[in-house]
């Protein structure tokens, strides 16, 4: 693992192969990466970046993750979306942008990467706040999602608000706390939407200081108790950023978790 785990956020990576737009706003777009090799067409993988939904973080910090996933033989789309701190970001556009992107990108990617994108719903890989958004999409539009790998997801917005994660990040997203906007939390909080109808694997490092691992433990336990197809992979020596770093010691377990979502595994 690098001396500073955050190095992955700015590590240089090859440029994407194609960029497509799923809407009219400048942030309603996605970068596409051609899968490695000449194998059969496979489902699109949509990477949803984190950064606590804030404008200062964008899809670029998932470049190493996206390159590595394309190296596993899948076409990859790094979806961008409007975020808090910029016009239009927050409730509801941040959530609806990702929902629209996930539903539109298989068609757009198939047109841009002919012969490389299999028919059917995409697999979602979301990190941190992106994990929240991936779970939200899977709960809201399950037929549009083939599976979810949620990496250290913010899976309980009410608890994240109570813990004041990233100094008010959830309040900025939803406009206040659960007492202020109960209907927004009911609609957007994965914890209130269990069981997620789509097969879901949650991976979380025990050393995570940004999103507590206990949140994932409780979310997965609740989902399984409700009959959901959800599983937890807890990594005892991993922190928050090792989950998206192909050079980290955790990466083999992340790839194994990803492969467990594939129907051709």
Automatic annotation (TrEMBL):
It holds the Pfam family BD-FAE. SUPFAM superfamilies: alpha/beta-Hydrolases. Residues 31-220 form the BD-FAE-like domain. Keywords: Hydrolase. InterPro entries: AB_hydrolase_fold (IPR029058), BD-FAE-like_dom (IPR049492), GDXG_lipolytic_enzyme (IPR050300). Residues 1-26 are annotated as: Disordered. It comes from Micromonospora reichwaldensis. This is Prolyl oligopeptidase family serine peptidase.
